[in-house]
Amino acid sequence: MENDRRQYKRYPLNHRVFAIVRSDAHALERIDHMSKGKIGMAIIKSNPMCMGEILDISRSGLSFRYIATDRILTSPCEMDILCSNGDYHLIRLPIQTVEDTFIAPESPFEVLKMKRLTVKFGGLTNRQKVKLNQLLEDISTRRRKKLGQTSAG
What we know:
This protein is of the alpha+beta class. It contains 2 helices and 7 strands; from the N terminus they run ββαβββββα.
């Protein structure tokens, strides 16, 4: 039996949380108080190298699935993490690719080829570490019904 070599526990995500990978030259504009439509347009304008739904996450990195394209990830890369409801946005995380593999199709009729990108985080700022820990706490304790939703009271 092979031991898991990860330093930190990896948490699966059952919520709509997305990773957006871009070069450091194409930062996403501030999306605070934007509608979902405007957030979508801001993401498209930022010209991401790839983006997709996060599958699992830890303090040291994450993996997500995305539609395979001919686009090559160039270094240096940064990643934003964005909750679908727009309440959680972690910006400009430096990343390094660990693995980029094709995912077997779930159905023989699937037209799009999907890939799984696994990355590790580079040197995070203290603010980024705090926000990432907040996200992991929300996931691990399951205190909230939806990611980013605050409790009333």
